[in-house]
Design brief:
The protein contains seven helices and two strands, in the order αααββαααα. It has about 140 residues and is mainly alpha-helical. It has two domains: about 60 residues, no CATH class; about 60 residues, no CATH class.
């Protein structure tokens, strides 16, 4: 599992380097590669090595590419293996309501991150019930042009 540690930093940076050099990505790193495909705006940042693991300005926003990638991989995996099942159900519901797949994934990631970091600051475990409730209450209404 990808976590917020030095080992995961090294793993993500290794995948970025393999992508640049055209080296085949190992099966265990395919989800990282998949997430990197969704975020080409980070490609130049990965070339910075460990500095890419700190907040950077990208397209006028301050983001941490490492944290964003870890969160993406975690939630993407939840959807892929349907565990917990309500995450994949929420993704499907949002898409059926007209939300773009990547936008729906980011909406779910936002809820996951809020709960994860709030509980981390309070030295508590992840609150799956809060996650369930937040996702259950997520709605999307397509904007009229």
């Amino acid at each position: 599992m990808v976590t917020f540690d030095k080992e995961s930093q090294a793993r993500i940076l290794k995948v970025a380097e393999q992508r640049r050099e055209g080296i085949e990505i190992e099966e265990m790193d395919e989800r990282i590669d998949f997430v990197m495909d969704m975020h080409p705006e980070y490609d130049e940042l990965w070339e910075m090595g460990e500095l890419a693991c700190y907040p950077q300005e990208v397209e006028g926003k301050i983001v941490n590419p490492f944290v964003h990638t870890v969160l993406h991989v975690r939630v993407d995996r939840q959807i892929l293996i349907e565990s917990p099942p309500f995450v994949a159900e929420t993704q499907k519901r949002l898409e059926e309501a007209g939300m773009d797949s990547h936008e729906a994934l980011h909406a779910i990631i936002q809820e996951y991150a809020n709960i994860y970091f709030d509980n981390f600051r309070k030295d508590r475990g992840f609150d799956e019930l809060a996650y369930y409730n937040q996702l259950k209450n997520m709605n999307y209404q397509k904007k009229e042009d």
